[in-house]
Amino acid sequence: MNSSLRRVFLASLLRRRLATALSLLAIALGVALGLAVQLIHGAALDEFGRGVRLLAGKADLQVVGPREGFDEGIYPLLARRAEVAEASPVLEIEARLPGRDDSLRILGVDLFRLMRVQPALMPLADREAAGEVGGNEGGDEARGARDAEPSRTGGDGRLAALQPNNLFLSADARAVLTQRYRSASGELQPPAISDGYLLAQSGLRSLRLRVAGQLPGASGRIAVMDIAGAQQHFERLGTLSRIDLRLADGVALSTARLALEALLPPGVSLRVPEAAASEVGTLSRAYRVNLTMLAAIALLTGGFLVFSTQLLSVARRRREFALLRALGLERRELMRGLLAEGAIVGAVGGAVGVALGYALAGGAFRFVGGDLGAGFFRGLSPTLAFDPALSLAYLFLGVGAGVAGTWIPAREAARVPPARALRAGEGERAGLPQARARGRTAVLLLALAGLACLLPPLSGIPVGGYGAVALILAAAVLALPALARAVLPLLAHSRSALWRLAHARLSATPAQAVVAGAGVIASVALAVSMAIMVSSFRVSVDDWLEQVLPADLYVRASSSSASGYLDPEALAAIAAVDGVASVDTTRLVNLRLSDAEPLFSVLARPAQGNWGLPLVAGSMRVPEDATLPPIWVSEAAADRHRLAPGRHFELPLGGRLQRFIVVGIWRDYARQYGAALIEKADYVALTGDTRVNDAALRVTPGVEPATVAEALRQRFGAEHITIALPGEIRALSLQIFDRTFLITYLMEAVAVLIGLFGIATTFAALATTRQGEFGMLRHLGLTRAEIGRLIAFEGALTAGLGVLAGTLAGGAIAWVLIEVINRQSFHWSMDLAVPWLVLGVFASSLVALAALVARLAGRHAMQRSAVLAVKADW
After folding, report:
1. pTM to 2 decimals?
2. 430 near 766, Cβ under 8 Å?
3. φ, ψ for residue 192 (rounded to 5)?
4. Per-residue model confidence (pLDDT) at position 790
5. H or E stretch covering 343
6. Which of 307, 387, 413, 534 has the fewest CB atoms within 10 Å, counting from its CB?
7. Among 673, 669, 821, which residue's Cα sits nearest to residue 737?
8. Which residues are paired to 480 by β-bridges?
């Protein structure tokens, strides 16, 4: 194509500034949302991976077990193996900080092994700490003169790390813990470090650990102390969290794994250090993929907008193309020129989207965090970095959306005979292509969508479900002309002449509904389906919380992973408080069933008591002929391990595999990768562990729960326990739920906005091609205001058809989301709850907005003189 022709097609884009700008913006928004999701998740994973590599150091393999740790007796067996050059034991403590809602990750390490395996974790003592270890030469004045500068040399500094009360902090941890902490409720909580000491919690007591130095090679919020001191202070004697292994020279990884795995007890695995990052990526993958699919639908809606814009542009420029064809332009060149227009729109929109995506990712890191509100990467501070490959990929997606949206209009333009298109008024009379009824094709696509729903997930991703969503959207767009022919006759009866004119116009040209409504269908289907799914999920979560929180008060020392706990003495003291009628307890542990999947949660508590259990299958009654301990498994556990009532299930407890019989299956929205409940008495008998995470209290009738809560705070200290009413837990849980779906709501709003862009561009272009028609109506007595109302009626009818088709498609997609995508991604069931009022208000508002947008878009064409508007027909 020569430069003159390139200027012709480029000038066309510049003439259609509004339509081009809206198309650019639509593609840019779709690209930006998708890229931002990938950037945020990738940066969070990279940051987590860096932390894993830092902690692993030179380790080739890691021995890992349940979160609560495993018997340290395995350490000497591994350390003496010929395959192992160095073995470094680690005890990891998630230390609760009294009076604060955050925690500190403390690593208990063997200083003499640390340098050979994890040198980045080597502590560096302050001169003050080193001086105290080595003696008090020179007195207090000399020690004060040395201040707190670090000492990199001398045995005294190294010996400071062996003191059981000394703690060494990374710079990130020190910066956070010396400041006041703002809780989720906005309350300012005191600094964790005061006068050189850190307050940490073990059980229900506070520990004063001296901040004796720093970790110059570490990043993130971590601390290091001597492993013996950590075991002693946090009452974890004889327990390790992991063992980092550096293999001997010449030993292959596969050979070492084969030899060492045979030594490990059940529930303890051997894996490469990078597996931890892969595990977190697996946990967050379903959430990330779902957000990416939402962004893809927004980009698809942008493609529909390009389609409608280019199709109407082609209709307006028929005579221009015919003249070029008559002057010798070949069909292939015409098609290439139009495709180049779409590529330019896509490229510029993609470039803007890439820049906007980085801006959105930066804003998310600042205001939402690297987990996008879902909690997978809580506590991390990822750094946004430019990813050229990912940016280029999304730029090409933008170009692809522009070219795909232009393909059909370009093909139609190339097929029009020049002689026909050069006739006067042909562009206006042709206007839009014929809309063929494709009912059979739509039915076939729906059938294929049903078959796609039967496909199993691929690597945990519901590919069939996402394919079904795309097929349903395509079927809805293809069925729109048939839907228009079926619905429009029902709307023909009206006394308003303007309504009858708008109705007749749309009935005569149903393709107008396709062109303007395609983007509306996609955006409405997305909004409706997500509204139904989120409403169903929220109602189900609310009902679930009501069932699992039947007690009057709930007491805990810390989360299940942190260092606070309730021991038998504390439970006896709780039961002795005036007003407490009964106390039921829960112990939550996280087991490692294999090295190929995330941790599995086990709850030990009385099956009958203050805690509810929302069963979906089976019974709470244990069969009389059962010879094995009973177990109730969650839906996720049943799906992932193919369990059903009556089947056997093995768990690694107490250092060996224990067999249980499945009695029931229950709904659990808290643990994505499965959970099981066993009787507390069975758990204590198998493990000897008498610690408790949570206590559920029933108060004596007539006693206010708030009075009992205050008595408990006075007894144990408000900084050591957390007490909540069921209503408070429900409110906080639903608040977290809404925050998790905040990004989803934003993506829905963007898709709907793009759909409105489609209405605007369609009616702006249609109004321009129909100037002769409007001029004739002006000659027949209609005013500009009445023609404006006519365009508004047409916009409302067109949007109404799109909303109707989108709502029907959205209902079908909602079923796919609930029954296929959600079940295969998260293994959760939910009860259908359609928000009829919300959907009704949304549909009405969208139709009204579409009427307003159409009226504003056609304002320019209405302002033209009535005489000049019909001049082309003289």
Report:
1. 0.78
2. no
3. -80, -20
4. 81
5. helix 331-367
6. 387
7. 669
8. none
